[in-house]
């Protein structure tokens, strides 16, 4: 049977305690349920002594989650251990995770204790924890900067006291892979009772090495890896769960190890975390970033169309993403352009493609990314300006505490003026719903962002929207000091583009063939 590494998720503890990542109790439970679907082996639900909110969340998760171990963090002191046990005692598989710092640096400046005192505290805490809870994990905080002789001594003592999982964190992200792997090798060689425990890694990403260090640990006998979704966590974060899991899966033959994770739940988990915390991942983030399965370079796109394995080492489906995307931009070639036109329903002859490509290159030189409506415009011989079908003639918003947000929108279409009102989840939602009621055009908002153009109270908000009208995406942009007004203007721009594209299509030949002679460079 293949060897397994246990995935210990600490998104709800080490992740949640970092700036910008806090969640309320319902949000924590939602994430815990998703972690259960992801099939993590252990979820660390929180640090119960740290606040009443944390205690309540750990308790709720312990009661509701089944099928995986629920761990609670505690320092090596009675009050922490009691509180942790109170929070997780109803879990199907409870675990108390006790930690104490072991490096001389932490002993001198933080704990102000001797090695002997720390050893004594650790042994007492593990024994006491074990008298309450069947499973105890013991962590040596700052293990990677701890004297290796003392580390061996305290690990041996903790195992003797009843710990069955020994975690040796690179708390400050200081280690490099070779070194971190060697620490575990030495522990395995020098601690006589090490076979009575599972070794665990816990890496921080201060030097961007958290995942590499975790893999080095696995290669040196670690069988539990602590990590977080999207790599969130203290400072530069923890080792990212999705990167470790997919490295193990993709390089299974090299590593000879597996996990129990359902990798197809990865993308959904990452998205849920981002939406709960508002902390988005960068576009080029491995596995879950929006560019992770997007290709722009012409040579890459051509290769991808011939066989995806040329430029993708794992399938997007294996992490729960529907398909790869070929982003059209100045590096794209004819092959990708032709393919996108086919997807949009246009069959271009070789000459038509050549003419369209020529025009496409001209636009691509000026714009970073070419969208579907640009391609539609190319078919209209480069007509890129959009006729304004609907014009915003008036907007009134009522919003505030304990008031249902309501929008009244007045639109002008030619000579006709139309006015209507609707309520929504927020003022922007109310305004979009009103536009939908007036125009009868149903748009699905797939992207919405606001950024301020400069700082200060009078900053201009630049709104960007991406809206799906009948399966085709249209973008809209607007800038305004009033972000609701900007949001409505941006939406109307996308809607007007959709209207223009529909008009072009309706007027186009039945076979949707581009008239070559109307296309000029
Ligand atoms: O980074 C660390 O050392 C920790 C311990 C509490 C396990 O998070
Ligand atoms: Zn940590």
Notes on the structure:
This protein is α/β, with parallel strands linked by helices and 521 residues long. The chain has helices at 11-15, 25-38, 52-64, 78-88, 104-111, 115-132, 148-161, 177-190, 210-218, 241-250, 252-255, 266-277, 298-306, 334-344, 350-366, 372-379, 427-439, 483-507; strands at 3-4, 6-9, 42-46, 69-75, 93-101, 136-141, 165-170, 198-203, 224-227, 257-258, 294-295, 325-326, 391-398, 406-413, 416-423, 444-452, 461-469, 472-480. It has an 8-stranded parallel beta barrel, surrounded by 8 helices. Helix 7 (148-161) links the parallel strand 6 and strand 7 (165-170). Helix 2 (25-38) packs parallel to helix 3 (52-64), helix 7 (148-161) crosses helix 8 and helix 17 runs parallel beside helix 18. It is elongated and about 85 Å long. The site of zinc ion has 6 residues, from loops.
Short description:
The protein is α/β, with parallel strands linked by helices. Helix content is 41%, strand content 20%. It has helices at residues 11-15, 25-38, 52-64, 78-88, 104-111, 115-132, 148-161, 177-190, 210-218, 241-250, 252-255, 266-277, 298-306, 334-344, 350-366, 372-379, 427-439, 483-507, and strands spanning 3-4, 6-9, 42-46, 69-75, 93-101, 136-141, 165-170, 198-203, 224-227, 257-258, 294-295, 325-326, 391-398, 406-413, 416-423, 444-452, 461-469, 472-480.
């Amino acid at each position: 049977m293949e060897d397994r590494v246990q995935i210990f998720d600490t998104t709800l503890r080490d992740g949640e305690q970092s700036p910008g990542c806090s969640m309320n109790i319902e949000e924590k439970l939602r994430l815990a349920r998703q972690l259960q679907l992801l099939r993590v082996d252990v979820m660390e639900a929180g640090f119960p002594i740290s606040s009443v909110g944390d205690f309540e969340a750990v308790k709720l998760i312990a009661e509701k989650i089944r099928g995986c171990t629920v761990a609670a963090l505690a320092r090596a002191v009675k009050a922490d251990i009691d509180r942790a046990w109170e929070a997780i005692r109803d879990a199907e598989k409870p675990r108390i995770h006790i930690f104490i710092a072991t490096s001389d640096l932490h002993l001198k400046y933080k704990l102000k204790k001797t090695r002997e005192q720390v050893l004594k505290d650790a042994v007492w805490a593990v024994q006491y924890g074990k008298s309450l809870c069947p499973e105890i994990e013991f962590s040596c905080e700052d293990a990677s900067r701890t004297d290796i002789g003392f580390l061996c001594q305290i690990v041996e003592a903790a195992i003797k006291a009843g710990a069955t999982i020994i975690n040796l964190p690179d708390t400050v992200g200081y280690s490099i892979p070779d070194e971190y792997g060697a620490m575990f090798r030495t522990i395995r060689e020098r601690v006589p009772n090490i076979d009575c425990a599972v070794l665990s890694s816990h890496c921080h990403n201060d030097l961007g090495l958290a995942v590499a260090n975790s893999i080095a640990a696995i290669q040196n006998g670690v069988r539990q890896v602590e990590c977080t979704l999207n790599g969130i966590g203290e400072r530069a974060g923890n080792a990212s769960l999705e990167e470790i899991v997919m490295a193990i899966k993709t390089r299974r033959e090299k590593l000879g190890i597996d996990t129990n994770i359902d990798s197809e739940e990865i993308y959904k988990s990452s998205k849920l975390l981002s939406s709960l915390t508002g902390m988005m991942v960068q576009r080029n983030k491995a596995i879950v970033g929006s560019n992770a399965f997007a290709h722009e370079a012409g040579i890459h796109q051509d290769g991808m169309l011939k066989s995806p394995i040329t430029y993708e080492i794992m399938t997007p489906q294996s992490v729960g993403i529907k398909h790869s995307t070929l982003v059209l931009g100045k590096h794209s070639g004819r092959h990708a352009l032709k393919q996108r036109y086919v997807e949009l329903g246009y069959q271009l002859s070789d000459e038509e493609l050549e003419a369209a490509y020529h025009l496409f290159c001209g636009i691509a030189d000026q714009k970073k990314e070419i969208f579907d409506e640009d391609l539609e415009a190319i078919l209209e011989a480069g007509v890129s300006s959009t006729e304004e079908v609907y014009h915003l003639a008036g907007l009134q918003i009522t919003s505030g505490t304990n008031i249902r947000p309501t929008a009244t929108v007045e639109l002008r279409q030619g000579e006709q003026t139309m006015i209507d009102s609707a309520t929504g989840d927020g003022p922007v939602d109310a305004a979009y719903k009103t536009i939908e009621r007036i125009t009868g055009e149903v748009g699905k908002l797939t992207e919405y962002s606001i950024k301020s153009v400069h700082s200060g109270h009078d900053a201009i908000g630049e709104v960007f929207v991406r809206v799906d009208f009948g399966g085709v995406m249209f973008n809209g942009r607007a800038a305004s000091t009033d972000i609701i007004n900007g949001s409505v203007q941006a939406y109307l721009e996308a809607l007007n583009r959709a209207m223009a594209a529909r008009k072009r299509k309706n007027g186009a030949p039945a076979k949707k063939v581009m008239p070559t002679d109307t296309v000029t460079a």
